[in-house]
Inverse folding.
């Protein structure tokens, strides 16, 4: 098949949720099919990223967004009553390139990665029918509803507006798609309540178990380390580490005075950087490789209070043989949301007790790691997810010729 893929970010480096998913799925599709990729970037694209795209794409076009353009487009969207998310990801250069490709190439199907890229597909669909498989990943409008619930004043008003407009857009796109994909059954159920009567399936995230596997003989360091990994300008991650350091970390330090906590991830906000002044807390900023931080840790924490979808940070910690303590929201998309593979706590006191317990009890930590390995082997394989996506794209392509 000749597949047009539309992604909101360059699918490389696979260091955040959306890039991890698009990178692994597209690279596996490219083993048997021709991929033409249209994507956006707000960071610039280095030579390493371009070489990666060259390795699996027949053609690729990266349009630069951000800065003044994004601010202007957001302002116009507010005046026009449009969702800010759609304005953020609009770029006329990408639209022109896709229109030219559509005249040149006979695409069999379109893989639309997230609802904010759907306008590009629907523009092309006005000229000829291009069957689309739309990967919503998670229910974005519900994430904005969570933001709104945690905010007040003007910010709360903006978030509620975005939730309402995005939900309307999700309904429009879902009815045009051949099939709608969500990252786990919980998201499928939530999406079905918003958009009933459309075909919707779960397409789970995987994890590269070989890449994250702890090297033989490497053991966690002393004094005990807890670690959080994530992009640190992302609102949900910022909220998570602020809550953890304010509500949970003091109890851990009282029980384990030598304990350390590392916040690992690029683009830390000012609020996050200020946490490095707390006893035992380190903010690393961007690192070339997160794996050594995981391998050195006795516990990985995922104290998310705002979350949709599947948390790759939890899967990666499990693959790295690090026991995990997480909130219920952080685990709702991971196999069984509760079980021997993860410690789930929402109360700060109970969360602290769980972290300290795993730092001290090597047998309990080992048992959780063993259960986690079994769970990700059964439920989180990139190979099986890519094969599932391939079947759906083939069905979509064949649907226009019946």
């Amino acid at each position: 098949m000749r597949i047009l893929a539309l992604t909101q970010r360059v699918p490389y480096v696979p260091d955040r949720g959306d890039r991890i998913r698009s990178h692994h799925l597209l690279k596996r599709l490219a083993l048997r099919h021709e991929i033409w990729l249209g994507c956006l970037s707000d960071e610039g694209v280095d030579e390493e990223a371009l070489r990666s795209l060259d390795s699996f794409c027949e053609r690729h076009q990266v349009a630069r967004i951000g800065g003044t353009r994004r601010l202007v487009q957001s302002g116009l969207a507010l005046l026009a009553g449009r969702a800010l998310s759609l304005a953020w990801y609009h770029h006329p250069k990408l639209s022109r390139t896709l229109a030219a490709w559509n005249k040149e190439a006979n695409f069999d199907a379109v893989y639309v990665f997230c609802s904010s890229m759907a306008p590009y597909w629907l523009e092309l669909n006005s000229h000829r029918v291009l069957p689309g498989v739309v990967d919503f990943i998670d229910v974005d409008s519900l994430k904005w509803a969570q933001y709104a619930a945690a905010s007040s004043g003007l910010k709360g008003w903006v978030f509620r507006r975005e939730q309402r407009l995005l939900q309307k857009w999700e309904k429009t796109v879902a009815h045009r798609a051949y099939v709608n994909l969500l990252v786990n059954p919980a998201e499928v159920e939530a999406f079905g309540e918003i958009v009933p009567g459309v075909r919707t399936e779960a397409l789970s995230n995987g994890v590269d178990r070989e890449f994250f596997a702890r090297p033989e003989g490497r053991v966690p360091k002393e004094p005990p380390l807890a670690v959080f990994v994530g992009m640190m300008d992302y609102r949900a991650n910022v909220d998570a580490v602020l809550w953890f350091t304010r509500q949970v970390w003091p109890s851990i330090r009282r029980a384990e005075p030598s304990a350390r906590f590392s916040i690992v991830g690029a683009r830390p906000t000012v609020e996050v950087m200020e946490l490095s002044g707390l006893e035992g807390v380190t903010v690393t900023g961007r690192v070339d490789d997160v794996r050594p931080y995981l391998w050195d840790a006795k516990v990985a924490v995922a104290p998310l209070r705002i979350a949709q979808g599947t948390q790759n940070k939890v899967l990666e910690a499990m693959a790295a043989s690090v026991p995990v303590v997480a909130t219920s929201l952080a685990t709702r998309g991971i196999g069984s949301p509760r079980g021997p593979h993860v410690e789930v706590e929402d109360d700060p006191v109970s969360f602290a007790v769980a972290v300290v317990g795993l730092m001290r009890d090597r047998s309990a930590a080992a048992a959780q790691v063993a259960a986690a390995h079994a769970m990700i082997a059964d439920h989180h394989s990139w190979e099986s997810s890519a094969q599932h996506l391939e079947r759906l794209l083939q069905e979509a392509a064949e649907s226009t010729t019946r």
In short: Residues 153-176 form the longest helix (24 residues). DSSP finds 18 helices and 13 strands in the chain. The chain has a mean pLDDT of 93.
